[in-house]
Amino acid sequence: MTDEEPARPEEPPAGQAQRMTVGTRFATTWDVIVLVAVLLTLVTVSATVLMQAWPQPQSPSGSTERVSRTRILIWTPTLARDTRLFLVVMSVGALGSLIHVLRSAYEYVGNRRLRRSWFLMYLLEPLVGASLALVVYCVLRGGLTTSVASSGDINPYGVASVAALVGMFSRQTVDKLSVVFNTLLTPPRESTDQLVGPAAKPPEVAVPGTGPTGGAGQPGGAGGSPDARNEG
After folding, report:
1. Rounded (5°) CA angle 135-41-215
2. Which of 28, 139, 190, 211, CA to CA, is 20 to 30 A from 59?
3. Among 125, 55, 65, which residue's Cα sits nearest to residue 86?
C-alpha cells in the first residue's frame, strides 16, 4: 500500500484573485440575532458615554467649569473639559459608524446575502470611526484654531457634528486624507498583496437593493470593497 499525497487546494484560474475560506458561509438566524444584539449594545454604550461626558454649559458669569467629577458608565473619574471633548468625539464617531453598519446589516439581511466574512468589519467599524474621529478632531483643532484658544471656546455641537460625519463616512474620509497626503508627500509603493483582478472590480450589473449609500451587495457603502457586490 502506497502513501498518497494529500489533495492540494485547487489553484484559481490565471488572472483571478485568490480568496480565503474563512467566513464563506451565509449567516444563520442566530448569527444575525447575536450580531444585531452586539451592535445595539454598542449603540447604547456609545450614547450613554456621549450623554454623560457632554461638557457643562457656561455659568451665568461666563466662566466654564474646567474640571468636574463625572460618572462614565461604571467609572467616576475627575475629568477636565478637554477630556470630555475627547470622549464626546470618540462616542459620536462610534455612533456614526454604527448608523452606517446597522443600515448595511439590515439591507444585507433583507436581501438574504449576509456572509460571516463581514462580521469582522461590522464589529471593528465603530472602533475605526471613533479613532478616526479623534484623529480628525486633533488635526482640526491643532491646525484651524489659534494658540490662545481654550477648550471653553470649542462648541461641542460643532465638534459632535464633525465626528458623526467622520464616523458615518470613514472610508471617504480616509480616501480624502490619502489624496491630500499623496499630493503633499511621496506616494507609497504599491503592495504586492492587494485586491486585484475580478474580485476587485465592480460588476457591470448592480445588485438589486443597492443604493448610493450602500446596500445589500456592499456592507461598506459608498467607497466600500467592490468584492462585496460579488457575494452570493
Report:
1. 70
2. 139
3. 55
Residue appearing with cell numbers 507609497: 188
Which H/E stretch holds residue 78?
strand 78-80
> pLDDT for 96-152, tens place per residue?
999 999 999 989 898 888 988 889 999 999 999 999 999 989 888 876 555 545 666
Which three cell numbers mark 46?
456609545
Provide the sign of the torsion angle of the four alpha carbons 188, 192, 193, 194, taken in this order: positive
200: cell is 476587485
* C-alpha torsion 73→74→78→83, nearest 10: -40
What is the chain's mean pLDDT, rounded?
75
> Which of 1-15, 124-138, 147-161, 172-186 has the highest average model confidence (pLDDT)?
124-138
Q: Which helix (DSSP H) or strand (DSSP E) does residue 116 occupy? A: none
Helix-then-strand count for the chain, H and E:
5, 2
CB 18 within 8 A of CB 12: yes
Who wins on pLDDT, 25 or 146? 25
Task: Kindly state the greatest CA–CA separation across the chain.
Answer: 94
Distance CA 50, CA 160 (A): 9
For residues 31 and 21, give the distance between their C-alpha atoms in angstroms, rounded to a whole number.
18
What is the tens place of the pLDDT at every residue in 66-99?
677 777 888 888 888 888 889 999 999 999 999 9
Query: Is 66 within 8 Å of 79 (Cβ atoms)?
Result: no
Report DSSP state, residue 152: G
Task: Say if residue 224's pLDDT is above 80.
Answer: no
